[in-house]
Amino acid sequence: MAIQVRTSHESDFDAVAGLIFESTNAWYESHGHGKIFSGSPADCRLFCDVYEDLDPGGCLVAVETSTQNIVGSCFVHPRETHMSLGIMNASPAAAGLGVAKSLLREIIRMAEEAKKPLRLFSSAFNLDSYSLYTRHGFAPYAVFQDMIFQVPEEGVTSDVISTDGVRPASLDDLDHIVALEQKIWGCSRRGDWEYFIRNERGIWHVSVIESAKGEITGVLASVNHPGSNMLGPGIAVDSDAAASLVLAELNVHRGRSPVFLVPAADKKLVALMYGLGARNCELHVGQSLGPAPDIRGVVMPTFMPETG
């Protein structure tokens, strides 16, 4: 059985959504965890739609050549400063055929051609995935705690975390957000932030926090969709600003249980999240093929969209 990697077409999106739904849930359930996606396969079309909005043609599929059945998929996201990849999926029925390896090698080729670092976040639970990436030269640069918080219908308050200075983001903030992200970890993804703020799909929300001098010191996006309910991406100058943004965005998702990634090395932010009532549900490792980012502040990545 031979595998071919090609760019996906819109006619593939339902099949890709089904693959993401089935293969992700199958892996977690087979390793003693609950389903990641609790709705229907159609919910995972979110990945195809959002990534096509941001990076047209950025979804690669692996097909079995004799049947043309899709047995693997991955998304690649070119940014100004780097490329990132995810979500990577392979059909359990195609185990042993090197599906993920074929997709990864094609994306590495694309990154090398663009002369950009290639970055991703991989689950620390999935050692096969971790091994795949490190065997191809990726090296870990940060560990993140996946935290989940059940937001009461009446919202959440804190005696320790203040939301003073937090407000909804606008397009007028875009230049300041881009400059802040460049300062905090040397990355640029202007198109992503503009996409979140414009919110043409009606599923995003973005907050910024300002200092007493009126300077933006952090930004945090979130998504509310049956296929993904997460806070992130986010950046902030320090733990307090990040915590304020998390509290504000949690209150956007009343009655839901969003997940967000917190840098494990940031003891203050982790403690603030524990104090709020968040609990750990997984660990992820930031990995880079090529120079790793130099983080001088707080970075909160996400998988919707992948923000390596």
Automatic annotation (TrEMBL):
Pfam families: Acetyltransf_1. Residues 3-152 form the N-acetyltransferase domain. PROSITE patterns: GNAT (PS51186). Transmembrane segments: none annotated. One of its GO terms (molecular function) is acyltransferase activity, transferring groups other than amino-acyl groups. This is N-acetyltransferase domain-containing protein. It comes from Calycomorphotria hydatis. The lineage of its organism: Bacteria, Pseudomonadati, Planctomycetota, Planctomycetia, Planctomycetales.
